[in-house]
Structures are given as C-alpha cells and as structure tokens.
Write a structure and sequence with these properties.
mainly alpha; Zincin-like; 3-stranded mixed beta sheet; 7 helices; 49% helix
Length: 138
C-alpha cells in the first residue's frame, strides 16, 4: 500500500460497544415482523469478549472463537404455568466479530453483526447450530 492509501486510515477507530449496540438494534428492527414479535423481550447485550466463566463452561480456550451467545430458555421449552424465566439474552462479542470481519473482507460489519444476531435469535427459537446451518444453506 502506498503512503497516500494508508493516510486515510490513520484517524479511524474501531466501533465502540455503543456503536455495535446501535448496529445490532438496527438489524433487529429490520427483521420481518413475525420474527421481531416472536423474539419477545429478548435483551441484546454487547461486550468485548465472553467472560472467563462462560468460556470455561463452553470449553473454549480462545475468546476470539465466540462471536455471540444465546442465554435463556428457548421459546419452545418455556412453561407458561411455571415461574417466570429470567429474560432471554443475546450476547454479541465485539472483538471476535471485528476479527472475523477483518478475515472475511467481503461483507460489511453491519452484515456480519446482523448474521451473528440472527444466528442467536435462532437459538432463542429453539434451533440448534445444525438447524441454523441448514436454514442458511437454503
């Protein structure tokens, strides 16, 4: 790269946690209505990385391997007569998503954040990773 090409990048910073949250909210708001309403009161949270306890529980040593996580009782397993479940949460992990985005090169950051968000919403609906992969392949 020439010095001129590099000079355009010297004043840029990585998107903040708040920037990521805004992009995720826009992606959620752009989902078709049936998905938004079925998602209910799911909470979307953005952190730099998953915490150590989460990584250990999942058997993940490299925190860059986890871009998102659904935490809660999926809607197919909820008992409407039982005690209220804690709110479902979707975690998006900023640093691993940025790392993956840099590796891809062919998609926008907004597209990647939306992809991770939709994947985690799939878990909220009770889909497994294999189910989600099949849907994406179609």
């Amino acid at each position: 790269m020439t010095q001129t090409a590099l000079s355009g990048w010297t004043d840029l910073t990585a998107p903040s946690l708040d920037d990521f949250a805004a992009i995720a909210r826009a992606a959620f708001d752009a989902l078709p209505e049936p998905f938004r309403s079925l998602s209910g009161e799911v909470v979307i949270r953005v952190d730099d990385f998953a915490d150590e306890a989460t990584l250990a529980e999942m058997g993940i040593e490299d925190p860059f391997e986890l871009t998102g996580l659904y935490h809660g009782v999926d809607i197919g397993r909820r008992d409407s007569l039982g005690p209220a479940a804690e709110p479902s949460r979707i975690f998006l992990y900023r640093r691993p998503i940025l790392d993956e985005w840099c590796d891809h090169g062919g998609i926008t950051l907004s597209e990647l954040i939306a992809h991770v968000l939709i994947h985690e919403i799939g878990h909220h609906f009770g889909l497994t990773d294999d189910d989600i992969d099949r849907v994406e392949a179609e």
